[in-house]
Design brief:
Chain A has 215 residues and is mainly α. In chain A, strands 1-2 form a two-stranded antiparallel sheet. A two-stranded antiparallel ribbon of chain A has the order 3-4. The longest helix of chain A has 37 residues, at 2-38. In chain A, 43% of the residues lie in helices and 4% in strands. Chain B is an alpha+beta fold. Chain B folds into 2 domains: 2-75, Ubiquitin-like (UB roll); 83-156, [2Fe-2S]-binding domain (DNA polymerase, domain 1, Orthogonal Bundle). In chain B, a hairpin with a 2-residue loop joins strand 1 (2-6) and strand 2. Classes of the chains: A mainly alpha (215), B alpha+beta (157). Chain A binds chain B through residues 93-97, 105-109, 111-113, 115-116, 119, 121, 123-125, and chain B through 40-42, 47, 53-56, 59-61, 64, 106-107, 109-110, 113-114, 121, 123-129.
């Protein structure tokens, strides 16, 4: 009998152990999720995250946010269909309209005034070969967005121009993004260098692209 | 030398590539229908067509127009008979007239892209053309009339 039971025992033990392990792992995972929520962070996407450091990610995004909400970035990401203008982000004089492709309408297209390079002189039109707003079907609004809302929006391919995280990282050095640091005479620069911005941008994304707490 | 095509005529001009197109059109070529207003793309008096777009020639470097097709008010129609020119005469739209070559050139792009514009479409297209005499209501009326003429003309063809 002893031998028989000694033979049986090994058959039951692994099943019990596996069941216990599954329960332990589930509890730990659940605790980890709950802990994340208690920290006040909302994870956007875990599937592609290189590292998940919510503290580092959110801290970097708050730097990114100050740049994106500066006039040099926000003025072309308005909540309406008229771009903003100036360091006080007033509605662009002449009320140019976004148009379907973001490049204006009929006699009021962006490139009619905005040349390939900055026009010399105070408050003359700044320039870039591809000057435009986001298109009508992908407005990518910055104006009025909270840090939480903007972070969620930026990482959502349905709202960011169908960009993956890799494409978002590459976008930090997009020529039109860089134009913010060459704004023409009479316009303020974003609150940090492009190098510092790009570093914060990449840090935000590579650490999980977490959104700051909505509260 | 810079090669230009203005009103379907070829020109070779000796100018700095950064010279505003307006300077070349008025001072070198001698076509003075296009006016200088503000010089900083704020008023629309200097609008000409560059490959069909209503660009402001005061901030457009001549190098941008090299090898491209430029049309000024003088070249808008063969006999000053563009529907807008006819409507402008019919209603007597201008007061002092200084801004009106720019007004008509902007309106021509509007009518090409939108043959039946609403008041809002007109406002959206013409918001960058300032008239110090305040002839805006007649401009709007003139554009509507020209649109009708254009539609009637295209029906006949």
């Amino acid at each position: 009998m002893e031998q028989h039971s000694a033979i049986k025992t090994p058959n039951f033990l692994p099943i019990k152990m596996i069941a216990v392990l599954v329960i332990i792992v589930s509890v730990i995972t659940g605790m980890a999720s709950a802990s994340k929520d208690h920290n006040g962070f909302t994870e956007n996407d875990t599937s592609e995250a290189i590292k998940n450091d919510s503290i580092k990610s959110v801290k970097a995004f708050m730097q990114v946010y100050t740049v994106l909400m500066s006039p040099r970035c926000m003025n072309c990401h308005p909540s309406g269909d008229v771009p903003l203008q100036g360091d006080d982000s007033h509605l662009h004089t002449m009320s140019p309209q976004r148009g379907k492709d973001g490049k204006g309408v009929t006699a009021m297209k962006c490139a009619n005034c905005h040349q390939a390079t900055n026009t010399p002189g105070l408050h003359t039109p700044p320039g870039h070969p591809n000057w435009h707003l986001p298109p009508a079907d992908m407005k990518m609004v910055f104006q009025g967005r909270t840090p939480h809302q903007l972070a969620k929006q930026l990482i959502d391919p349905e709202q960011n121009g169908h960009k993956s995280k890799e494409q978002l990282i590459a976008h930090a050095t997009d020529a039109l993004v860089l134009a913010a640091w060459n704004p023409g005479e009479g316009r303020s620069l974003p609150p940090m260098s492009h190098e510092a911005f790009a570093k914060a941008w990449v840090t935000w994304i590579k650490n999980g692209a977490y959104a700051p707490s909505p509260k | 030398m810079i090669s230009l095509n203005i009103n379907q005529k070829a020109y070779q001009v000796d100018a700095d590539p950064d010279m505003p197109l307006l300077w070349v059109i008025r001072d070198i070529i001698g076509l003075t229908g296009t006016k200088y207003g503000c010089g900083v793309a704020q008023c629309g008096a200097c609008v000409v067509h560059l490959n069909g777009e209503a660009v402001r020639s005061c901030v457009t470097r001549v190098s941008r127009a090299e090898g491209q097709k430029v049309v000024t008010i003088e070249g808008l129609s063969e006999k000053n008979n563009h529907p807008l020119q006819l409507a402008w005469q019919e209603i007597d739209v201008p007061q002092c007239g200084y801004c009106h070559s720019g007004q008509i050139m902007s309106a021509a792009v509007l009518l090409r892209e939108n043959p039946n514009p609403s008041d809002q479409d007109i406002d959206d297209a013409m918001g960058g053309n300032i008239c110090r005499c305040g002839t805006y209501l007649r401009i709007r009326k003139g554009i509507h009339m020209a649109a009708e003429m254009q539609r009637a003309g295209s029906k006949k063809e």
